[in-house]
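Dear Dr. H.,

I hope your travels went smoothly. While you were away I took the liberty of generating a structure for the chain from your last submission, since the lab meeting agenda had it listed for discussion. I wanted you to have the full record in hand beforehand rather than looking at slides cold. The sequence, exactly as received, is reproduced here:
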Amino acid sequence: MGSCRPRNYARRISSSRSVVEHIDLYGELNAPMRGVTTVAFNTTGEHLMSGADEQQIMLWDWAPKKLISSYPSGHSDAILQAKFVPFSNDRLIVTSSADHQVRLIHARESGSAANMELSKHHGCVNGLAVVPCYPHVFYSCGVDSYVHRHDLRVGSTSKILRCVSIITKLGVRLFSIDIDPRNPHYFSIGGDDPFARVYDIRKFGTSTNQRSPAYMFCPRVMASFAYPYITALAYSRKSELLVSYNDDSIHLFRNNSGPCLSPDDEQVYVGHRNSRTIKGVGFFGPDDEYIVSGSDCGRVFLWMKKSGEIVRAVVGDVETVKQAVGHPSIPVLATCGMESSAKIWGPTSNSKAPMPEPLANDDELDVEDPYEGYQDSDSS
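The corresponding predicted structure, in token form, is as follows:
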């Protein structure tokens, strides 16, 4: 290792392309559930949380593939998102659901848990975002076009924003929200138009209808159209904004230059399918060197962030991979899809793992809107 410090050496190994090219299935976390809808590592990466259609939250010791606890969420429909509350010793978990609710789970040392409703949107709640340095504050967004701010210290929830399309002037159904980790005053939202909006909460006034974005990102070719729309977005550690579009590509925006960026300002990632469900997108590697996303062809894709080259693709589900999240410190992935188990991936292959063969459903994908028929309650 020479003069390289052990910690730096470990980071270099974790980000190595050869390590990523050896990623393969490590194991499955099986539970008697119909479908796993969301997965999330805790801060240390020791434990993994999964949510399911049956409204249960599972806590796993993922390395030995052992179920630690199972908590009822109190939801009456499928859990769509679940997040650990920072600095809560994994005792507090916030969840959102297709039943329109945002709820809090308080896990006790005895193994039991209490849950309570925090707020209710008018429609599915796809987006949750916790604030790393403010452990009692988090945000939710839903298909009712609203962003809610929750403060666990005082038990309050407020509607801070209604997102309105600059093209149609109607409410934008929101599918994703994330906080800038370098500047937590900024958050970004995405929904059923092509614009990723970045807001500075310090500049908010009194009216939820009169809050303008600090920045807007959109690929030049999409700026004058209502579709494709955004299904997911995520910030890197360097404040880069990653945006995934329905029936289109993934785009990385590197600076705050305005609504229509030149080709030099964005990187594009192609090859996956994103048309059937609302699925996540994110970064992978100790310094976010890779991009990761599930696909409607049943694969998990990993791209080089700088070049956009696909470096690994694995078959992760018989139908759709909804979410793929990276471990906070080592080259391990957790994924979930239509199957009843969460899957763990790591560099387990003894040789460079081959790319998977084309799947039967590659050419049989039907484009559908998961919220077709939903009416914006405030658009009339």
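Two observations you may find useful: The domain at 16-32+289-356 is CATH 2.40.10 (Thrombin, subunit H). The chain has a mean pLDDT of 87.

With kind regards,
E. W.
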